[in-house]
Amino acid sequence: MSSDPPVSRAGPLDRRYLSTTLAELCRIESPSGRERACAERVGAELRAIGVSAREDAAAEPAGSDCGNLLARLPASASAGRGDGQPAGDPDGSPRRSVLLCAHLDTVPLQAPVEPVLRDGFWENENDGILGADNKAAIVVLLALARHVRSVGAPVDVELLFTVGEETALAGARAFEVSSLQSDFGYVFDHASPIGEVVTASPTHYSLHASFRGAAAHAGIRPETGRSAILAAARAVSALKLGRLDDGTTVNVGLIEGGTAMNVVPELCTLTAEVRALDDRRAEALVAEIVDRLHEAANDPECDCDLDLAVERSFAGYAIAERSTALQVAEAALRSCGHEPLRIASGGGSDANALIAGGFETVNLANGTERNHEPGERVSEAALESMLDVALALLDEAALTPPAAR
Q1: pLDDT attached to residue 401
Q2: Which domains are assigned to the chain?
Q3: d(Cα 220, Cα 144) in Å, to the nearest integer?
C-alpha cells in the first residue's frame, strides 16, 4: 500500500448533510425490535440517489419488525484506484469490494429524542440517549453513498444496516454472510476517539435463571412458604461481579420477583452475563455461576426449583497482525491525520458476528461519547472525521496489492 495515497475528502455539501440527517434520524425511535421506521428512512435516502437496498429475512430470528438492509454501489472507472489505473484490476479479475456496516437499533429510550447542537456537539435536549450509537455511523454511510454516486469510488462498496445489534447482535447473527461480495469490511461501532481500532473483543454468555419456591401468607404462614427471592439473593451474593481482570467482566443486570409485600415470593428470575477475551476463561466462569445458582436453589432454607438457560451470545476474536483489513484501516487513519491505536474492547459489535461467519472485519471507533447514557453526544468534527476516514478506506483498499487479499 502507498504510504501517502490521494485521499478523497468530503465537501461542504457532504458535511451539511451529516448534521441535518443525523438530527432527523435520531428523532426516529428505533429501539431493538422496532427498527422499521428508521430502516424505511435509510432506504428512502438511498433510493433518492438511485441505490436500492435489499431487506433480508432476519426480522423473525432477530425479534424485529424489520430485516437487515444490504445495498451495493459499483466502482467508477473514472474514480481510478488512486494510482492512475482504472477501478478494475488490469488483468480483468473482479474488482475489490469493501463492506461498511452500521446498526439501525438503539438501546431503549429514557426520554423522547430532540437533537440540539451545543458547542459543536449534538446531544439530546431531554434527559436521555441521543441515539448516536449507531446513527452517527448510519449518517456517515449515507453521506459516503451520496459522495460515491456523485464522484465515484475506486472499489465496489457494500453497505449493511443491521437490526438487533443491541440485543446480542441478533440481526448480524441472522445475516447470511455468504451473500457478501466484499473482500473485507468495517464496522463503525466503538464509542471512543477516532483513531482507535478494536483488535480484540470478548466472548459473551447470557444466563437466565428462574427460581420457583412456594407462596404463603408472610404474616400468618411464612413457615410453609419457600422464598424464591431469598434463593436468588443467595446466588447473587455468592457471585464475583464487576471487572474480574483486564479482560473479564461479570454482571447481574436484571432481577424480578414477588407479587405483594405480604406474600412469600414463589417466583424470582435473574439475568446475568459473562464477557471474557479468553474463551476458556468465559466457559469456566459460566460453569462456576451455574454451580452457585444450583447451590442457592438447593440451600435448605430456600429449597427451590431452578430453571436455567445458558446461551453463548457471540464469540470473541483477536485480529491477526497480518490482516489486510487492519493494515488498510491503519493506513486510512494515518492519511486522515489520526495515529492508529489498537485496543481490546469489553463490548461486542456486529464485527463479532461477521468474523464468526468467516468474514474479515475490523471495528473502528466513531467518536461518539457516553453511549447508552443520558448525555450521549457526538461532535460535528467527529462526524466529518469519520466520513473522511470511511472515504480513505476505499482509496487504501484500492491500493492494496492483490497478493495481500
Answers
A1: 60
A2: 12-201+316-404 (3.40.630.10), 203-314 (3.30.70.360)
A3: 69
> Do residues 365 and 194 lie in contact, with contact meaning Cβ atoms separated by under 8 Å?
yes
Q: Which three cell numbers, joined as nine digits, stand for 255?
A: 432481577
Contact (Cβ atoms closer than 8 angstroms) between residue 381 and residue 234 = no
Write out the DSSP string of 329-390.
HHHHHHHTT---EEEE-SS--HHHHHHHTT--EEEEE---BSTTSTT-EEEHHHHHHHHHHH
What b/e string do you get for 78-110 counting C-beta neighbours within 10 Å, with b at 16 or more?
Answer: ebbbbeeeebbeeeeeebbbbbbbbbbbbbeee
In the Cβ-directed half-sphere of 193, how many Cα atoms lie within 13 Å? 7
Nearest CA-CA partner of 317 in 283, 358, 285, 376: 358
CB neighbours of residue 290 within 10 Å? 15
Cell reading at 121: 456537539
Joined grid coordinates for residue 199? 483488535
The Cα 190–Cα 358 span in angstroms is 21
Summarize pLDDT for 331-370 with one digit per residue, the tens. 999 999 999 999 999 999 999 999 999 999 999 999 999 9
Identify residue 3 by its one-letter amino acid code: S
Answer for the pair 181, 72: CB distance below 8 angstroms, yes or no: yes
Reading the block at residue 289, the C-alpha cell is 455461576
Cα(206)–Cα(250) distance, rounded to whole angstroms? Answer: 10
Angle at alpha carbon of residue 102, lines to 375 and 283, rounded to 5°: 85
For residue range 174-205, list pLDDT tens digits in order: 999 999 999 999 999 999 999 999 999 999 99
Is there a cis peptide before residue 134, judged by omega within 30 degrees of 0? yes
CA 175 to CA 41: how far, in whole Å?
21
Q: Is 83 helix (H, G, I), strand (E, B) or coil?
A: coil
Per DSSP, 223 falls in state G
DSSP state string for 88-143: S-TTSPPPPEEEEEEE--BSPPSS---EEEETTEEEESSSS---HHHHHHHHHHHH
Whole-angstrom distance, CA of residue 272 vs CA of residue 255: 9
H or E element, residue 207: strand 203-212
Cα–Cα distances (Å) from 288 to 125, 255, 275, in that order, read 44, 19, 14
Cell numbers of 216, please?
Answer: 404463603
